User: Fold these one by one.
Assistant:
Number 1:
Amino acid sequence: YQLNREPRMQTEFRETPGEMLDQYELNKEERTALEQGDIGLLYVLGVNGQILMHYAAFLGIAWFDYLDLMRAGIKKHGPVRAGVYAMTGGGDGFTAEGNKR
């Protein structure tokens, strides 16, 4: 969120990303995803799509590429693990009725 909103943070991330990320309690997977700009993994880890789309724009990723990267992240890393986009039931359907189709 702060990276999306604060020019100082953006400059710091561009110039010294490691130092900027040191300010946060991130596990290795989270930190690596941010350092590598891995939109798909960040999505699977549960980063909110509104925040993630601004981060993608910050990285210079076009909208349709951003959407493709999220889909690719699911294929590579599995279903979304946390947050409002968390997938349950294998992601086949959102309701019991939908799963019967």
Number 2:
Amino acid sequence: MPIKSYLVHPISGKKEELFSVLKKMDECEVVPAKNQDLLALVTDTPNEQQEQILKERIEAISSLKLLSLV
């Protein structure tokens, strides 16, 4: 069960849109930063292959600027 955490940087002005999309994904827990234009994301998948598939889905979101594993 890989559990990974990311900092998610939205395209300027798209933080709420990105938050909404990520919140709908079952494998994701997302928390918006209060003083920065970014989101904290924790993913929980059954295996590394599913984690890679989820990461690709996240990277395809149009309001995403940068996804950083932390």
